[in-house]
Amino acid sequence: MPREVIKALQAKRLQQVLERVYHSVGFYKKSFDAVKVKPDDIKSISDMKKLPFITRNDFQNNYPFGLFSVPMSNIVRLHTASGTSGKSIVFGYTKHDTELWSDLIARSLVAAGITKNDIIHNAFGYGLFTGGLGLHYGAEKIGASVIPISGGNDKRQLMILQDFGPTVICSTPSCVLHLAEEGKAMGVDVKSLKLRVGIFGAEPWSNATLTKEAGPMKRYSAIPAASRNCRK
Question: What is the pTM of this model?
């Protein structure tokens, strides 16, 4: 699409979201009214600066389901953040949400050069975190083979990396560095693995970390995915 058409579509969808939450979630109506803003006042993406900020405390104060804009009967999956600083932030997903999520992850993986011929070692955490399952369904959507290894158990991770021959590894940056260190200590030649693509995210990482991670992989991507640290 031309850029102007994309901007118009973004504005339309933003207005739809604002209308929905304003009329279905008490917290949003109250916060909008407090700054004297109505959904109709947001005509374009540039008008977003008029909207009130939402903080982590707002999520925690409305724990667990106070910010949901649909009834629980429409929710097919629940995830949470780590909850390390108090009550967890809760995320509810409708069937449409999970389908859209899978599409977005699939597009991200394809952009990183991954195809249905790849075997993906998914070391993002499964469970209440969004990382493992979020990436898993996007990978299946493009037809790739997924190893749902999750985090932890270094010896098993390294055995699978050698025996199953995955061509892609997905994890936090610290996880893959930790596995490389453990592999070296165990006498595993990491450069002999078939890995060619790394998908890393869910925590901050520097350019120095990127350089250190290079190893045998030729392509890197950072995509949003919540995950526990592999060391845990």
Answer: 0.81
How far CA 119 is from CA of 61, 116, 158, 164, 169, in Å, comes to 42, 8, 15, 8, 9
Beta bridge partners of 171: 200
With b for 16 or more beta-carbon neighbours within 10 A and e for fewer, the 83-93 pattern comes to eeeeebbbbbb
How far apart CA 80 and CA 137 sit, in angstroms, is 18
Would you state the structure tokens that stand for residue 98, as one six-digit string? Answer: 């999970």
**Residue 93 belongs to some domain of the structure:** no
Count how many domains the chain has: 2
Q: Could you report the per-residue pLDDT of 77-112, keeping only the tens digit for each?
A: 999 987 666 788 999 999 999 999 999 999 999 999
Query: Does one domain contain both 110 and 170?
Result: yes
- Nearest to residue 125, comparing CAs of 199, 225, 197? 225
Residue where a domain terminates, one of 19, 34, 54: 54
Domain holding 212, by residue range, is: 103-221
Considering the domain architecture, whether residues 125 and 202 belong to the same structural domain is answered as: yes
